[in-house]
Each structure stands twice: as structure tokens, then as C-alpha cells.
Amino acid sequence: MNATSVPRFLVIGASLAMFPLLGLAQGSAKFEFVPNYFPAQPGGQPIGAAHGGVAVDHAGNVYISTDTERGILVFGSKGNFVKSIGPTQIHGLFLNRERSGEFLYCACPNFNEVEKLKLDGTVVWKLGFPEKSGIYANAGEFHPTNVVAAPDGSIFVADGYGKHWIHKYDANLNYIKSFGGPGTITPAEEGKFNTCHGLTVDTRGPKPLLFVCNRESGRVEYWDLDGNFVKVLVRDLRMPAAVQIRGDYVAIAELQGRVTVLGKNNEIVAQLGDNPNTGQRANYDLAPTAWTDGIFNSPHGISFDRSGNILVSEWSHYGRFSKFAVKR
After folding, report:
1. Domain co-membership, 112 together with 196
2. Local structure of 44: helix, strand or coil
3. Last residue of a domain, which of 133, 168, 200?
4. Contact at 8 Å (CB) between 168 and 114?
5. In sequence order, which ranges of the chain are alpha helices (DSSP H)?
6. 60 and 40 part of one domain
7. Beta bridge partners of 15
8. Are residues 114 and 173 in the same domain?
9. HSE (side-chain half, CA atoms, 13 Å) at 280
10. How far lies 307's CA from each of 96, 107, 204, 211, 323, in Å?
11. pLDDT digits over 133-183, tens only?
């Protein structure tokens, strides 16, 4: 599956709940939709096509990748548009804090590579397909959807739109191993992927674990940093596309019109913006006139800000960014 062939109306698993209270979370954690937080015309231009990710730096600036010539749109901590940087068509976006500063790690499925950028958009390095894995005949078979760095400096690349493997590199970009590989949806094989789409590293426990959104299988999973399957955490999600962790909370963007929040024991504590209209879920061409404030259509990128609020970008021909504020 490539970046332009995402099924728009495919239902994976069952809906966990339907909530009539628009814009509010249901559960023990509470978040409330903030209307008009991001400008509809940042820099005086439409947002345009978005199929990317969200990241937040130490200063609170928000980076949201688009498929337009402006590349990554940068907003201040109050939602104001600041500038645009870097290349276009970045899919997965991960911000890593290192000794020498903060960097953006970017997965670029249409260009068959991942990149590391400075916060001004300058390219630090590019990494192509893992030829040493023996999995690929050529670079054109490699379509990475996400990339993350672990605390020890190792790097994990999810080939979600290509061969459905996760590849591990050391801090010096030396290839280490590949794990997972393609599985089926029904029956859903544990230890295999059907679109390993989103990644993050969970450091809440005694040892870091890789948190994987196994999108077409409708579940999120733990894998250890040696590439061993640990367990399924939640099943029957609606195409989990991206994940971010802050404190005790895990935020999961579900492409089919919802965000699910997990607590410290990976139990569901809130669900945001649940769209009851199945025709609007994962609908890339849904016009803004059909949007409802506080109701999601196609959540694709997600991050917490410094205050624990949730920021979401949607897979949309027109581009749509939202904020849900945590209620304390």
C-alpha cells in the first residue's frame, strides 16, 4: 500500500463507543475541543493537503507536516503561525532531544527514505532502504511511514506502506536487524504486521518498549527493543495511525474518526471527537463544509503539547488541525 492508496471507508474491528456530547472526551480523563486554535489560513494561505505528523519542541513550537510546497508548518505555543520549513510529503514526524540539540526525524514514503532535520529544516542525514536486510529488490519497494529514536540512540523505521517490517539501526546508522513482517487481518496473527503505521518509544515502565500501531489489524502492541513481540495492548481500534506518550497518558490517532487515550496501565480513559458518520471517517476528500467542530474525520498525526493538551492533524485534501485541551 502506498501513501495515496489508503482505503477511505474500510472499517477495521468494532467501534468501542458512540458519544453524543460533541467535542468532549468520555472516560476518567477529560479533554475539551478548542475551536479555531490553529488559523484556517496560516500565513494567508490555505493549509492544503496533509498526510503527515505532529511534533512539539521544548519551547512549545508545533511542527505539522503537509504535502504542499511549504512542507512543515510551524506554529507558536499559542497556535499562531510562525513559518514553514523543510521538505514536503513528510509522513511520520518525530522530535528527538539530543545532546547537540533538538531534531526532527521524518519518514518519507513517497521518496523511499527517512531523514533527520534541524529545527530550521536543514537536512542532517538521509537513510534509504535497508539493502542489507535482503528483503527488498530495490528502493522502490520501501515506503516508510514512521521513524523514532530510542533512549540508547538506536533508530527504528516502520515500513508501513511497503513490506511491513520494522528495521533497527544503531546510533551511527548501521543496520542491525528487521522484525515483524507481513501478516493477515483475519485471523490477526500476533507477531506480524498489516501496516505497521505509527511508532513511539514507551519509557513509562522498567525498560523502554516500542509502541506500534498495527493499523490494518486494528490494534496497538508492545515490542521490545531487540525486535521481539511482547503483547497486544488494545484491539478493535479504528485504524490506529499514530501514537504519542506524555506522562501517564497515551494518545492514539485512529484514522476512522476518533482519538483514544490510554492511562498508565494502558486502559482506555478517554475517547475524543468520535464521528458517528461512517461515511466521513477516513474520507480524504471530505469538504470543509461537511466538517463538525470537535468531531474528527481522519486523525493521522498526533502529539501532546507541554501542558498535556492533545494536538491532531488529519489526513485531508484540505488540511485540518485541532487541539483538545486537558481539563484539570
Report:
1. yes
2. helix
3. 200
4. no
5. none
6. yes
7. none
8. yes
9. 18
10. 18, 26, 18, 22, 12
11. 999 999 999 999 999 999 999 999 999 999 999 999 999 999 999 999 999
Q: How many helices (H) and strands (E) does the chain have?
A: 0, 24
Q: How many domains does the chain have?
A: 2
d(CA 271, CA 135): 38
Q: State pLDDT tens for residues 262-316.
A: 999 999 999 999 999 999 999 999 999 999 999 999 999 999 999 999 999 999 9
The secondary structure of the chain in percent helix, strand, coil, rounded to multiples of 5, reads 5, 40, 55
User: Look-up: residue for cell 475541543?
Assistant: 33
DSSP letter string, 196-226: EEEEEEE-SSSS-EEEEEEGGGTEEEEEETT
For 231, the grid coordinates are 503483547
Q: Which of 189, 171, 173 is nearest to 181 (CA)?
A: 189
Q: Which residues pair with 244 in a beta bridge?
A: 251
CB 309 within 8 A of CB 323: yes
* DSSP annotation string for 102-163: EEEEEEEGGGTEEEEEETTS-EEEEE---GGGS--SSGGG----EEEE-TTS-EEEE-TTTT
Q: What is the span of the domain harbouring residue 151?
A: 98-200
What the block records as the C-alpha cell of 259 is: 482519538
Residues 45 and 65 both lie in one domain: yes
Max Cα-Cα span within the chain = 52
Amino acid (one-letter) located at 106: C
